[in-house]
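thread: overnight batch results

M.L. [08:02]
morning all. the overnight job finished for the chain we discussed friday. pasting input first so we're all looking at the same thing
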Amino acid sequence: MRFAALAVIAAVVLALPLVAQAQQPQPQQPVAWDQLPRMQLERQFAGPLQDTIIQRWRDPADGTICYIYLPITAAHTPPTASGYVQYGSNTIGSISCVAPVRLPAAPAPANPPAKK
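M.L. [08:03]
and the structure it wrote out:
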């Protein structure tokens, strides 16, 4: 009985790496930057510091709203062979996103009784 329990434990332990490996998401092929979907710019505000702005963007797929705080200009490298550029640290800004507000559906109006 003890041997059977050890055999089961050993089988489970040996199978764990296979299960973990099977659950790993498969890497996706890189998508060219100019082919990625776009969010919709809704508004732009002056930032708290000179030459900074705050932008409000909406995800057209699910309505998520993001506020991006960024400098008006940001230095970057020339495009790499893959077409991407590299920005230095702390030059891009920050982003905060909130899920869209889902209002409860209004109840359907009750039909008045038919007049006779």
